[in-house]
Amino acid sequence: MTKLLDDLAGHYSSIINGLGEDTDREGLQDTPMRAAKAMQFLTQGYQQSLSDLVNNAVFESAMDEMVVVQDIELYSMCEHHMLPFIGKCHIAYLPQGRVLGLSKFARIVDMYARRLQIQENLTRQIAEAIEEVTNAKGVAVVIEAQHMCMMMRGVEKQNSRMKTSMMLGQFRKSQATRTEFLNLIGNNR
Ligand SMILES: Nc1nc2c(ncn2[C@@H]2O[C@H](COP(=O)(O)OP(=O)(O)OP(=O)(O)O)[C@@H](O)[C@H]2O)c(=O)[nH]1
Ligand SMILES: [Zn+2]
Questions:
Q1: DSSP annotation of 118
Q2: What is the ipTM of this complex?
Q3: pLDDT digits (tens, 9 = 90+) for 71-100
Q4: How far is CA 135 from the centre of its chain?
C-alpha cells in the first residue's frame, strides 16, 4: 500500500467524520480506502504520458481524407466541485502520411479526462495531443457532456448539455472541412 493511498484514505476518514458519520460503523469501515482507490483511479491521467500511451502506434499511410472516431464515452471530474461530468467525445483528423492506432484516440481522451478538468480545457488538450502525435493537417474535437455539479446541486438542471469544440489546422481554416465533420457526427444531436 503506497503512502499516497494511505494519506488519501486518512483524508477521506476526516471528511466522513466531518459529515457527522462514524467511520467505525460496519458499512463505512473500508470506505476511506475504497474512496481513495477510486479517486486515484479517476485521476490516474496525471501519472500518464502521451508518448508512453501512444507506444509508437503511428503507422505510415497514404490516407489523406478525413478520419472520424465518434461517440468515445468520457468520464471526467470538474475541477470546481470535484463532481463527475459525463459525455461523449468525437474526434476527426486529416492525416498526412501517418495514421494513429484506433484505440489510442480513446486512450488519449481518458488520459486527459482522468484529471481535474473543465470541459473547454479537456477539449483543447485532446486536440493538441492528437495534432502532436500525428502531425495531421487538421484536428477537430467535439465534446458533449452533462455536469453533475449542474444536476445534483446548484442550479439542478437535468437536461442541459454543454458542447465544446476545438478546431485546429484545416478544420479551423475551412468552413467546408468543418461542415463535413459536423455532418459526419450528426450536428443536430
Ligand atoms: N465553463 C465551465 N464551467 C464549469 C465547468 N464545470 C463546472 N463549471 C462551473 O464552474 C462555476 C463555479 O462557479 P462558482 O460560483 O465559483 O461556484 P458555485 O457557487 O458552486 O456555483 P453554482 O454551480 O452556480 O452553484 C459554475 O458556474 C459551474 O457550473 C466546466 O467544465 N466548464
Ligand atoms: Zn462543477
A1: -
A2: 0.88
A3: 999 999 999 999 999 999 999 999 999 999
A4: 21
- Is 11 labelled as part of a ligand binding site? no
Residue 157 Cα to ligand 1 midpoint, Å, equals 13
Burial class for 127, CB neighbours closer than 10 Å (0-12, 13-18, 19+):
buried
Q: What is the DSSP letter of 158?
A: S
Backbone angles phi, psi at 114, to 5 degrees: -85, 55
Distance CA 89, CA 72 (A): 5
Q: What percent of the chain has pLDDT over 70?
A: 98
Answer yes or no: is 89 a known binding residue.
no
Q: Quickly tell me which residue has 439542478 as its cell.
A: 156
Mutate-to-test residue for ligand 1 from 80, 81, 86, 153, highest number of ligand atoms within 8 A of CB: 80
Cell numbers for 11, please give them.
483524508
Q: In the beta sheet, which residues pair with residue 138?
A: 94, 169
Cell numbers standing for residue 116: 481535474
